[in-house]
Amino acid sequence: MKISSRVDYALSCVLRVADRPDKGNPVTVGDIAKKEKIESDYVERLCVTMKRNGILKSIRGKSGGYILARPAERISAKDVIVAIERNVLEPVCFRKKGRRKKCVHLVGCKIRFLWDNLKKDMELTLSKYTVDQLLSLRKREKNWQIK
User: Could you state, in order of their start, the residue ranges of all structural domains in the chain?
Assistant: First the structure.
């Protein structure tokens, strides 16, 4: 499985939003971009995608920004990953392959169980880790508290 930098950045953005002493205060795109050292427009695109998929909520106005759409303990790593890369956990059998809609070996495939089991295992593992758990791990990193 290849996790894109887009997924990695999105997860980091969600962790920055979750890391607020006052959970009601929104986090600005500029603040996330500065702390994560990524471009503001890229952060904005990620946040908009996550908003559309129920991970974040936006607050408008001068003091606006983003907050979590639900408590951090109810957002899993899987939720964030699927919000950003919708089909990333889909078995290769069902992914579009060039001009084909699906794998030519789909009917009668003898190894499809491998891909199905891999998908189930990845979903189970990614569902186990919540944003609050990942944030507590991330906070132990020496560079996390950079202002």
Answer: 5-87+130-138
